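From the methods appendix. Each design record in this collection lists the tokenized structure first, followed by the designed amino acid sequence. Records were kept in a plain field format so they could be parsed without special tools. The example shown here is representative of the layout used throughout.

RECORD:
FOLD TOKENS (289 positions):
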């Protein structure tokens, strides 16, 4: 039996994820009080459900504090569990609530939206480290849907650790979900070549440009050596997820190339995912042509 637990801040994308899981054949339960999780799973196992997704968050109040204990009980059973914790910057969450005119579950006549988000963030802080952390601040819904589909596809079932390589642009801020951050802004920037400016780090022309730079293979080897050394340590520490963020100025050329190259190297060693946070849909479409 495979179970995906969804939690995180209100407005951070949990509903989008639950819809993707339902479309992927998961039996989905939304807004479940945390103390009921073990009993629900037991019932669904008896009824023969093999794929289940459950959203547990602050809508059920303080009972969310029971979730770690419930997860601990489930991990003692022959069940494969993945927990996804969704997060986003406060200014982004305020903007989303303003656009949709939805009420935050913690707001009332005495609490502003900003205060409600702060209280929710504090209440959920202990859960953020229990599973895979996704920062949706800069993600479009279609990109998030793709990430969720990749996350639930286990192409390396013998591995207990999912290694995520994530490119980003420093001008958009460092991702909240990064465990390790590498800065490749010291590498010559293809942006200043007019023929490469509109391309991405996935384009053959940009790849040739970067691979001609003497420091690029050196940095690739250094990052690869660091991960080769420490990845087994993270695995022995029973880490289920490790997010390696590679940043350049705009997140379009250098960081994308580095993330793709490193992911290809580690693909046979563990379950690997790749995300490009700052690529626009237009740039990605141009690359695929």
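DESIGN:
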């Amino acid at each position: 039996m495979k179970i995906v637990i969804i939690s995180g801040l209100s407005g951070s994308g949990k509903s989008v994820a639950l819809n993707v899981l339902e479309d992927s054949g998961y039996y989905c339960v939304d807004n479940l009080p945390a103390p009921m999780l073990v009993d629900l799973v037991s019932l669904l196992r008896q009824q023969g459900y093999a794929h289940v997704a459950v959203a547990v968050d602050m809508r059920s109040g303080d009972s969310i504090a029971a979730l770690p204990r419930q997860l601990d009980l489930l991990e003692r059973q022959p069940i494969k569990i993945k927990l996804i914790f969704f997060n986003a910057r406060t200014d982004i969450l305020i903007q989303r609530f303003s656009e949709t005119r939805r009420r935050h579950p913690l707001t009332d006549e005495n609490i502003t939206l900003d205060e409600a988000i702060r209280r929710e963030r504090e209440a959920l802080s202990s859960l953020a480290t229990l599973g895979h952390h996704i920062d949706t601040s800069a993600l479009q819904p279609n990109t998030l849907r793709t990430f969720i589909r990749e996350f639930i596809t286990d192409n390396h079932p013998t591995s207990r650790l999912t290694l995520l390589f994530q490119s980003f642009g420093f001008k958009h801020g460092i991702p909240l979900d990064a465990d390790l951050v590498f800065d490749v802004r010291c590498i010559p920037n293809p942006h200043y070549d007019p023929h490469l400016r509109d391309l991405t780090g996935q384009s053959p022309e940009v790849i040739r440009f970067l691979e001609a730079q003497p420091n690029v293979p050196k940095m690739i080897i250094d990052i690869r050596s660091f991960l080769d050394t420490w990845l087994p340590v993270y695995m022995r520490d029973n880490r289920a997820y490790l997010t390696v963020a590679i940043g350049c100025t705009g997140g379009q050329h250098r960081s994308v190339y580095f993330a793709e190259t490193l992911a290809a190297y580690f693909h046979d060693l563990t379950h690997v995912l790749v995300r490009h946070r700052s690529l626009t849909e237009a740039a990605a479409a141009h690359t695929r042509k």
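APPENDIX NOTE: The beta strands are 2-8, 27-29, 51-55, 80-87, 132-135, 162-169, 180-183, 241-248, 271-276.
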